[in-house]
Design a protein that fits this description.
The protein is built from nine helices and 13 strands. By secondary structure, the protein is an alpha+beta fold. The longest helix has 18 residues. It is globular, with a radius of gyration of 19 Å.
Length: about 325
């Protein structure tokens, strides 16, 4: 579930290190400390290496250097390949950086089949990434990134005994946008969800472009065919709300609409996700965002069987 795009909770053994650290300064500007490889994530009894397929490995970042490499990949995909407009810090550092990077866990897909450079040890290449934010961490800081676009507080308050996880900043390097990489990312997410006993996954997913009329078919499809039921409903903030029901239901050809959807959103649909009310235009990233809501209880059983009830299919 991951090509360029982007877009909770749990008591867990994984500690989040305090972040007066080299990723982001107190004022949000990046600091530059070349070659720093400080351990900034301790994942308790969860092995950071979550799985492998051939030369590809999925793992959780543990060091500042690894997180920076994820940020560099995001910059390459979002700002160089797509139409996002970098802020000053990102432009200078050539990394996609925001304050949430200091709070989130970062899932990486590495390719170990790389050629060694002269006089250097071969270094695995970061080819995919996802950003994960558990509710307990969000609650201790400034909440979920998603809350800047959607009013998710009532959704969370309606399910006080459930653990939420936010997924975001998903991207994969162009040559690796294939089933194998996507499968490894989802394997890693599933292992993380099981370990932290997550109940609900949420996050923003993006359609490229900022003109809703040009996206009328896929948006209308999501509105008419994949809207979240009342108990899982949440809507875009009123000041950012963009209508999704641009076409009448009878005017929507589901097959054509599915072809128009990004692979990430199609992946969410296959898993059993539904979508919130209203879209949000993100002018910085040049996208139109929709809210994904995926209770673990709603995941299609065949995907649980595929990855294994203990996430053992691609175990390292």
């Amino acid at each position: 579930m991951p090509t360029p795009s982007t877009s909770a909770a749990a008591k867990s053994a994984a500690a989040v290190a305090p972040f007066t650290n080299p990723l982001i300064s107190p004022k949000g500007m990046t600091k530059f400390i070349p070659g720093l490889s400080k351990t900034v994530r301790h994942h308790g009894n969860l092995d950071p290496v979550l799985g492998r397929i051939g030369s590809l490995e999925v793992r959780l970042a543990t060091t500042t250097k690894e997180i920076r490499r994820a940020q560099k990949l995001r910059f390459k995909v979002f700002y160089k390949e797509m139409s996002a407009a970098p802020n000053g810090a990102s432009l200078l550092s050539r990394r996609d950086v925001d304050e949430y990077d200091a709070l989130c866990d970062h899932l990486l897909v590495l390719d170990h089949d790389v050629k060694a450079k002269p006089f250097r040890q071969p270094k695995p290449k970061v080819v995919g990434t996802y950003r994960l934010l558990r509710q307990e961490v969000a609650d201790r800081h400034s909440g979920f990134y998603t809350s800047g676009e959607y009013d998710i507080a009532p959704l969370i308050e309606a399910h006080p005994n459930l653990r939420f996880l936010e997924l975001g900043r998903s991207c994969v390097l162009q040559p690796y946008r294939n089933k194998r990489t996507v499968e490894l990312l989802w394997h890693g997410i599933w292992a993380y969800v099981l370990h932290h006993r997550i109940d609900v996954m949420i996050g923003c997913a993006s359609l490229e472009g900022t003109d809703p009329q040009k996206l009328a078919l896929p948006l209308s499809f999501l509105h008419h065919y994949a809207a979240a039921p009342a108990e899982w409903g949440a809507g875009a903030l009123s000041e950012r709300f963009t209508s999704m029901d641009l076409l009448a239901k009878e005017a929507v050809d589901p097959k054509e609409a599915l072809r128009a959807l990004p692979p990430l959103i199609k992946g969410y649909l296959r898993l059993g996700a539904t979508f919130g009310r209203g879209a949000v235009i993100d002018h910085q990233f040049g996208t139109t965002d929709v809210l994904v809501i995926l209770p673990v209880s709603a995941i299609n059983p065949r995907y649980i069987d595929h990855f294994g009830s203990t996430a053992n299919r691609h175990a390292a």
